[in-house]
């Protein structure tokens, strides 16, 4: 269609810029990220279109935009997961996080709030979280107590964190 014609490319970008942005933004939910992904979409269009037979440009752009946005979101999720993978091993127990200058009443109220929230968790997740984070037990110790494999404990911790992300709101802890 445009076969490397830069002026035609510019016209297509002008015509579909907002359309592609809206599609990408609906998936990634962040304007800067949507801009980055949108650039990838148009770069893909510029490099692929001369070699691709496209019957409906708008439909093709939509499909590319959705796929690029989903790929971007997956990559970002994987990077967040990789960044937090080692946190369990390096996280100090809650007793070490306390400050001597902290108001004991505020600390008590916060601990009560956390315990109430923990009681909302499904029991198998709650037991693993408490054992790991509050009782400072290793994966192996918890696995031995529950008579399961270490991998099962790691999976339960992962699922517990996912459950928390879905059901708890950060504002509740401020």
TrEMBL record:
One of its GO terms (molecular function) is sigma factor activity. CDD domains: Sigma70_r4. SUPFAM superfamilies: Sigma2 domain of RNA polymerase sigma factors, Sigma3 and sigma4 domains of RNA polymerase sigma factors. Residues 112-163 form the RNA polymerase sigma factor 70 region 4 type domain. It holds the Pfam family Sigma70_r2. It comes from the Bacteria. InterPro entries: RNA_pol_sigma-70-like (IPR039425), RNA_pol_sigma-70_dom (IPR014284), RNA_pol_sigma70_r2 (IPR007627), RNA_pol_sigma70_r4_t2 (IPR013249), RNA_pol_sigma_r2 (IPR013325), RNA_pol_sigma_r3/r4-like (IPR013324), WH-like_DNA-bd_sf (IPR036388). GO terms for biological process: DNA-templated transcription initiation. This is Sigma-70 family RNA polymerase sigma factor. Residues 12-78 form the RNA polymerase sigma-70 region domain. Keywords: Sigma factor, Transcription, Transcription regulation. Belongs to the sigma-70 factor family. ECF subfamily.
């Amino acid at each position: 269609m445009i076969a490397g014609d830069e002026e035609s490319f510019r016209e297509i970008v002008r015509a579909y810029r907002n359309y592609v942005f809206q599609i990408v933004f609906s998936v990634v939910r962040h304007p800067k990220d949507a801009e980055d992904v949108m650039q990838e979409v148009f770069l893909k269009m510029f490099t692929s279109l001369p070699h691709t037979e496209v019957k409906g440009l708008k439909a093709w752009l939509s499909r590319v935009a959705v796929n690029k946005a989903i790929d971007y979101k997956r990559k970002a999720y994987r990077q967040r997961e990789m960044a937090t993978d080692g946190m369990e091993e390096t996280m100090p127990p809650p007793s070490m996080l306390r400050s001597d200058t902290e108001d004991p009443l505020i600390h008590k109220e916060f601990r009560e709030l956390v315990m109430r929230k923990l009681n909302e968790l499904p029991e198998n997740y709650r037991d693993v979280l408490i054992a790991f984070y509050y009782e400072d037990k290793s994966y192996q110790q918890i696995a031995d107590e529950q008579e399961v494999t270490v991998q099962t404990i790691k999976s339960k911790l992962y699922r517990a964190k996912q459950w928390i992300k879905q059901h708890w709101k950060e504002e509740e802890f401020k």
